[in-house]
Fold this protein.
Amino acid sequence: MSSDRGSQVADGQRLFVGGEWVEPDGGHYAVVDPATEETVGWAPEASREQVFAAAAAAWDAFGPWSRTPPEERAAILGRTADLVRGALVPYAELAQAETGATTGTARGMQVGVAAARFRRYATVEPAEWAIAPQVNEAGPFGRAAVMGALAVRQPVGVVTCITSYNNPWANPAGKIAPALAMGNTVVVKPAPQDPLSVYRMAEALEAAGVPRGVVNVVGGRAVEVGEAAVESPDVDMVSFTGSTAVGQRIAEVCGRGMKRQLMELGGKGAAVVFDDADLASAVSGIGTTFSFYSGQICTAPTRVLAQRGVYERVVEQLAAYAGRLKVGDPRSPDTVVGPVISAAHRERVESYVELGRKEGAVVVAGGERPSDGPGFLVAPTVLADCGPEMRVVREEIFGPVVVVVPFDDEEEGIALANESDYGLIDYVWSGDVARAFRVARLLRAGGVGVNTVGRNMEAPFGGFKKSGVGRDVGSYALHAYSEVQAIVWQG
């Protein structure tokens, strides 16, 4: 890696603009470890001018990069995957320090998935496909002819990638890798809570041979940083992961500039548990809400709809499951639930639990702060006897909190699941697989897990309703980060 790279975290991280590591105009701010509340390092605060400079550098690099053979682009992504995998332990230690993730999550779900995503897009896929010939009769456009056609994927241009705090490795990798594979250049604006990992990713890309200006990273806490990354006239597309409220504001700006959008927004995943379900499987799956990122994940099955015949057992088993989980230091090998990202977010989650009490929900597990020591810890919490009108049922809490709502029959279960502003991923548990698939097709969600919370990493990912716009992952990401061009000729 270059000798002037921006890894001097103790002295203050530099921005990565046009292939150079540059000092931020706005100085630095402290990145805090959510588990120890100590300073991890000093993140840069870019100015609006520096963000515009990054977009301009990306635009200058776009022409040459888009004309680079796909095999060469793929080779750079492959080398990046190797570099990230080779530094998995130190990268995971930094991710853990920034996010509070457990060791297993930091290594496997954060850095490990990032390496896998770079490796996935190091495979060259066909970027064109033939269209069936069309026979045109003689007419105003000339003599009779056979018209051939080819559909070609072309890069969009400069893509602004605005990433989420819950996964500073897998999330940006899932944007950067397919965008570069398709010949786009990128401006990455990392989440302000844990940006240092994204600069390490930029170092790996630089070391892998990515040309100057193809990848730029400009971060900061100020709203103006993200606004500039969206507004820049050099930006052709915005890929955003985060809250629906912020996504709506970004969409308004993109609409004015006719910029392409890929939005992965909030979720309030419904887990529909029927009377004939394998309850051990359902409870274990729903329980991942508590462990993965301490509930800070939009795909979590946080809204449990349990049929009357199993409702009491679901509540009882979920409460017991939550009570067995060790909450504490994420570096301890037996810790399952680490901290949430910040003191402010802990207060937000706790306020929702208190709101649930006031709305009439019964706290059957958790509900109290687990420790007076350091760390922004929230106990895994289960709220029972909830109704569909409650705010804790309707709004995304983004913490280790699960709400349980009873239902009577299949029709009501489907209606309750769909009675949401969100539609990212829902879940169905039933011993009758035919019914589970029938119900899955009736759920208004971008994805449905049948008797599992597992993911197929080639399946399209994205949401209905206020959960987002567009699809990515696997080959779908290559479509998302490309425009389709038709080439027609007369045979």
Summary: The chain has two domains: 15-265+467-490, 270-458. The radius of gyration is 24 Å.
